[in-house]
Recover the amino acids of this structure.
């Protein structure tokens, strides 16, 4: 492939090509068209909206918990409802908000950032979204029917086993896990194939945007971590539904086995949530200091090593279970070690800010808030890695404070910054900066008012997951402060929401590149056309928008009369071959419904499994059977 | 405005095999997921074994049907390799069909022996934890045999009915890859459940 001729399109040829691309990639109209949508940006937008709906629901549950705990012996909720609400809050935030929202933002942005027209498996994206929504719907449907799970988001046996948790509540939880993890796995597989094979010519691995790196590493973590929770929740469901004995010590089973399987997933899960946020932070820091991030290689290596070390920490959730001392020491060391790559990244960002010219727009404010809060959470994390301290504060509010600092600070703040940053690309309009700054400061202050007192409450001995406490404990004042802080924080988040909703309709027009960003996503219109790029870009720099001249070649020769994409080589992203992506299809919905009926059905009868398998198989045949107009046919046909 | 230089990709091929193809990465990722699931079930097996002084707690499982099933699974591989190779070179439908049918028939027979294997086990899944994990592992692998068999059936229907597109050659090869994967886990599963307690320590 040589850069032979100069591309001299006549205006007509260009316009005609654009018209054809619009026609080829456009969404179908009507309900069937809506249900059969496969465009990555449209599916991702639905994903983002659904995830924020769950975020609001999870937030309302959090508010209920805070109201209940605001004063001693409060009677707002009884123990049973309280158990359901805190289980719903944790499960919603972890499984229905944190992981899906990160996957969703990536699903929207990654193809734009790597210069691709689509993701590798468009129908798989649609399937992922449907399965996710069915899982979330199942959980909330059950909750409103008073069958909400009540054994906490990690659902320890024997509490969640058949003996102590009769009824269907835990089964609902276990199947919701299966749905959401299936959705995340599908999205991760799609990301890996897309990032490896669809990068624009010239975007070698060493030029890949840091956000894309973070999503790639997250996808690999999902692939090796999520099966553990699916296996664990399936074994739990088997114990409950067909009387197996995996977790039943009386028949040779083991309750700790659950904790091992769950946390082998559960700890990497934290990094699955957190690593995409690190990618967002690097993106925002670069854009708002107007320089490339300091220490690209160090940042990538930190992300990779975080991905590996993240799998060697799970036992630190189990220090209170009396494990062998050598094992405890190993996991203490690993838990402290993970502070090193996190520290390297923080210093790289500080160096970038120091040597750049920071513009304190809301996205950067959210990132600075992240640095402050996350460092606090990281410090309590290092404290908790020490066994004696962990045993002292195990299952107290100290731990609650720690993981909210890490998760809200480490993931929600960067996410709010990133949504603010990419909102104009997604909608074509800017969010209000003034309102953005107000929402940041109010959320930031409210957050610290809510969660800082919990450190002290935990050290004072207040256990987590109690529905009330006596006045003599002296915990009342700090709890009231935390509840007041929660109201402040909720107000800040409400402002953010109002800002987003009103800007969606009435915001100022953004243009293609309102922030002067460095990545390819800013080279296309806002919102981007269905086909993303009329001519695929090529890349010769880590910051293509800043450093590439007008002589940077573009790719031509992809067909515009079908959904053709360019496949490039894994390491160097040299053009390799072309392939045609499938069109809209209703099949992903059919398969999602079939899997949904199967997983929900087995709660009531084991026979749902073989029947569901058969129905799913039939639906899958519908998915794969070729029925579009024929393409490259073999010479020999039956 | 000065026109931009261009790279013309119109002459690039529309078909590639192996790690060059995005679908290969999709299937490889799926195999990584399923490998993790098997590995976790095996880890569970060993974890539970650590709690028992006598393993298996209820006598050795009978090895007969499992051995026959394993033999058949291994026997089904060469014809699958023939299909696989034909999809790359000759691309003759008749040859691909023939070997696919042979491999699939042997595979279905192996699935039959798996069902017989369940019938021969002297314990049920609800007798003890050992029974639970053995049924889970054999069941998990049995589902793989079933699903992979169904996939073979789908491709056979495609090869008989058409239209057969070039990209289906890639699909056929990945289908073969999946079958090798299922057979490979069949070998390891057999070693774990039958060789570990029954043969190696007797």
């Amino acid at each position: 492939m040589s850069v032979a001729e100069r591309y001299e399109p006549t205006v007509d040829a260009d316009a005609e090509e654009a018209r054809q691309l619009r026609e080829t990639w456009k969404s179908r109209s009507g309900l069937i068209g809506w249900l059969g949508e496969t465009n990555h940006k449209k599916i991702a937008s639905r994903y983002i909206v659904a995830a924020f709906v769950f975020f609001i629901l999870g937030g309302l549950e959090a508010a209920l918990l805070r109201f209940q705990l605001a004063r001693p012996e409060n009677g707002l909720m009884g123990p049973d409802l309280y158990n359901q609400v805190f289980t719903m809050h944790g499960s919603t935030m972890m499984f229905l908000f944190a992981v899906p929202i990160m996957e969703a933002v990536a699903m929207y942005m990654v193809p734009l950032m790597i210069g691709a027209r689509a993701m590798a498996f468009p129908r798989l994206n649609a399937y992922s979204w449907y399965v996710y929504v069915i899982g979330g719907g199942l959980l909330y449907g059950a909750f409103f029917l008073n069958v909400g799970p009540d054994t906490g988001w990690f659902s320890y046996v024997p509490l969640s086993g058949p003996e102590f948790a009769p009824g269907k509540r835990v089964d609902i939880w276990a199947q919701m896990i299966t749905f959401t993890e299936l959705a995340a796995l599908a999205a991760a597989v799609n990301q890996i194939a897309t990032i490896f094979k669809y990068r624009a010519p010239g975007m070698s691995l060493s030029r890949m945007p840091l956000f894309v790196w973070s999503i790639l590493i997250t996808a690999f973590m999902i692939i090796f971590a999520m099966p553990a929770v699916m296996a664990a929740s399936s074994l739990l469901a088997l114990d409950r539904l067909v009387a197996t004995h995996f977790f039943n010590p009386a028949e040779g089973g083991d309750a700790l086995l659950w904790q091992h399987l769950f946390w082998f997933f559960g700890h990497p899960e934290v990094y699955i949530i957190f690593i995409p946020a690190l990618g967002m932070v690097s993106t925002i820091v670069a854009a708002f200091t107007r320089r490339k991030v300091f220490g690209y290689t160090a940042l990538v290596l930190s992300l990779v090593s975080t991905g590996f070390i993240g799998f060697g920490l799970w036992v630190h959730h189990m220090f209170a279970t009396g494990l062998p001392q050598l094992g405890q020491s190993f996991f203490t060391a690993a838990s402290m070690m993970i502070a090193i790559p996190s520290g390297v990244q923080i210093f790289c960002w500080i160096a970038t800010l120091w040597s750049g010219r920071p513009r304190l727009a809301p996205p950067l404010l959210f990132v600075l808030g992240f640095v402050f809060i996350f460092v606090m959470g990281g410090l309590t994390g290092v404290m908790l890695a020490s066994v004696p301290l962990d045993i002292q504060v195990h299952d107290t509010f100290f731990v609650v404070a720690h993981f909210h600092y890490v998760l809200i600070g480490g993931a929600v703040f960067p996410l709010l910054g990133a949504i603010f940053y990419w909102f104009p690309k997604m909608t074509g309009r800017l969010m209000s900066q003034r309102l953005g700054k107000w929402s940041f400061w109010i959320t930031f202050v409210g957050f610290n008012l809510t969660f800082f007192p919990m450190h002290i409450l935990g050290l004072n001995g207040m256990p987590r997951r109690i529905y009330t406490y006596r006045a003599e404990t002296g915990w009342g004042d700090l709890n009231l402060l935390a509840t007041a802080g929660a109201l402040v924080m909720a107000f800040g988040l409400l402002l953010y929401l109002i800002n987003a909703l009103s800007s969606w309709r009435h915001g100022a027009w953004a243009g293609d590149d309102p922030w002067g960003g460095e990545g390819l996503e800013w080279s296309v219109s806002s919102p981007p056309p269905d086909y993303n790029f009329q001519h695929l870009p090529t890349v010769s720099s880590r910051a293509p928008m800043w450093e590439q001249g007008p002589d940077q070649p573009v790719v031509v020769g992809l067909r515009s009369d079908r959904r053709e994409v360019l496949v490039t080589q894994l390491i160097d992203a040299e053009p390799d071959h072309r392939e045609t992506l499938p069109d809209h299809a209703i099949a992903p919905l059919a398969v999602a419904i079939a899997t949904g009926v199967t997983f929900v059905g087995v709660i009531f009868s084991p026979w749902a499994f073989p029947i569901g398998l058969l129905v799913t198989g039939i639906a899958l045949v519908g998915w794969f059977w070729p029925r579009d107009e024929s393409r490259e046919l073999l010479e020999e046909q039956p | 405005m000065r026109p931009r230089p261009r790279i013309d990709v119109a002459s690039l091929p529309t078909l590639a095999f192996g790690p060059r193809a995005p679908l290969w990465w999709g299937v490889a990722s799926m195999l990584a997921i399923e490998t993790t699931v098997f590995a976790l079930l095996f880890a569970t097996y060993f974890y539970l074994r650590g709690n028992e002084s006598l393993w298996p707690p209820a006598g050795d499982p009978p090895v007969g049907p499992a051995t026959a099933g394993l033999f058949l699974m291994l026997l089904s591989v060469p014809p699958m390799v023939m299909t696989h190779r034909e999809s790359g070179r000759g691309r003759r439908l008749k040859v691909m069909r023939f070997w696919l049918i042979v491999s699939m028939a042997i595979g279905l027979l192996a699935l039959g022996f798996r069902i017989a294997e369940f019938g021969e086990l002297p314990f049920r899944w609800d007798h003890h934890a050992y029974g639970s994990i053995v049924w889970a592992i054999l069941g998990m692998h049995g589902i793989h045999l079933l699903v992979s068999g169904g996939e073979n059936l789908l491709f056979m229907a495609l090869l008989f009915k058409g239209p057969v597109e070039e990209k289906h050659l890639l699909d056929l090869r990945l289908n073969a890859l999946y079958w090798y994967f299922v057979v490979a886990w069949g070998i390891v599963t057999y070693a774990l459940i039958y060789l570990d307690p029954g043969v190696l320590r007797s």
User: Anything to note?
Assistant: The two ends of chain A are 37 Å apart (CA to CA). Chain A touches chain B through 81 residues (CB under 8 Å).
